[in-house]
Write a structure and sequence with these properties.
five-stranded antiparallel sheet; Nuclear Transport Factor 2, Chain: A; signal; PepSY; PepSY domain-containing protein
């Protein structure tokens, strides 16, 4: 009985860890910056915001940058630092996709 309980406990802990592994930003909601601060940051950087959403525990901005490229920017909700930035180039080159990480 004791061995079964130990195995079940370990299985539950492993499953919980796998679920939390999907979150890129693990910050209590009480420590999050308000959505208005996200919009203000985007405006300061010259981004046009189509949508601000929450994804993987982070803020995510979908829109265009100052040059008109389509962007998706993932922000740390507590510090508003850039966790990941994906953009699509407007040029006709192969693929036309780029990826920048950690760009402030």
């Amino acid at each position: 009985m004791r061995k079964t309980l130990t195995v079940l406990t370990l299985a539950a802990l492993m499953a919980a860890g796998a679920v939390r592994a999907d979150d890129d930003c693990v910050v209590p909601m009480t420590d999050w910056q308000p959505r208005e601060a996200v919009a203000r940051l985007a405006a300061e950087k010259g981004w046009t915001v189509r949508r601000i959403k929450i994804d993987d525990g982070c803020y995510e901005i979908v829109g265009t940058d100052a040059t008109g490229r389509r962007i998706e920017v993932k922000l740390h909700p507590g510090t508003l630092s850039v966790v990941e930035m994906e953009y699509e180039d407007n040029d006709e080159h192969e693929g036309g996709h780029g990826l920048k990480q950690g760009d402030d």
